[in-house]
Write a structure and sequence with these properties.
The chain is of the alpha+beta class. The chain has two domains: 73 residues, Glutaredoxin; 129 residues, Glutathione S-transferase Yfyf (Class Pi), Chain A, domain 2 (Up-down Bundle), CATH 1.20.1050. The chain is built from eleven helices and four strands; from the N terminus they run βαβαββααααααααα. It has a four-stranded mixed beta sheet, with helices on one face. The longest helix has 37 residues. The radius of gyration is 17 Å and the shape is globular.
């Protein structure tokens, strides 16, 4: 069988979503760990012309964009299925992923997690409290929307694990380790959901590097 190679910077929540999905599928892979900033190198730009992570290779097939990678993995390795078939559940899965990719990460987590965890751990930076304060008011809207979407369900799209859970859990685990994220998630249904996700073997097998865990 063709080898799977995943390229990315350890600690990236998008990389972790791909690795955790492969773990859920019980598929072997080789992680090609990159340094921060390496995504702009000429060699990597041949894999991902936009210089983002992760990138994915399955034999001679190359792919980028996390959503596309996750759906490919689910299609090529059908067991266990990680996408529902009932139309409303499918719609909720896509909705949760959209909240992550359009609002939670670019508008909130990218700033708060970098300032509170990544910058101090990797670069010795002091958190920019003004930058955090500028985006923190958006956090309750995102957390509230995801909490309502989860409701009384076990997982974001229903009673079975889906790609939405694997996309959101790495992001929210980082956020929950910050004062802002912890406060927003406290006593919500998302808090118990995240505890359950963090306890999964796939998440335990794909933990961020120790320096980032300590910073969190």
């Amino acid at each position: 069988m063709s080898e799977i190679v995943v390229h990315g910077v350890p600690g990236s929540p998008f990389l972790r979503a791909v690795l955790a999905t492969l773990q859920e599928k019980r598929q072997g892979y080789r992680l090609r760990a990159m340094r921060p900033g390496e995504a702009k190198s000429p060699d990597y730009l041949q894999l991902h012309p936009f210089g983002r992570i992760p990138a994915f290779e399955h034999g001679d097939f190359q792919l980028y964009e996390t959503q596309a990678i996750l759906r490919y993995i689910d299609a090529i390795f059908p067991e266990p299925p990680l996408q529902p078939t009932e139309p409303k559940a499918v719609a909720r899965m896509h909705q949760a992923i959209g909240i992550n990719d359009w609002y939670l990460f670019p508008e909130i987590a990218r700033v708060i997690v970098f300032q509170r965890i990544v910058g101090p751990a990797l670069m010795g930076l002091t958190p920019d409290e003004a930058a955090i304060a500028a985006v923190a008011p958006k956090l309750p809207t995102c957390i509230g929307a995801l909490d309502r979407l989860l409701g009384a369900k076990v997982f974001l799209a229903g009673d079975q694990l889906s790609l939405a859970d694997l996309m959101l859990a790495p992001q929210l685990e980082y956020l929950a380790a910050t004062p802002e994220g912890h406060s927003a998630m406290q006593s919500t249904a998302l808090e118990a959901w995240l505890n359950g996700m963090s306890a999964r073997a796939s998440m335990a097998a794909t933990l961020p590097p120790e320096n980032l865990r300590k910073a969190a």
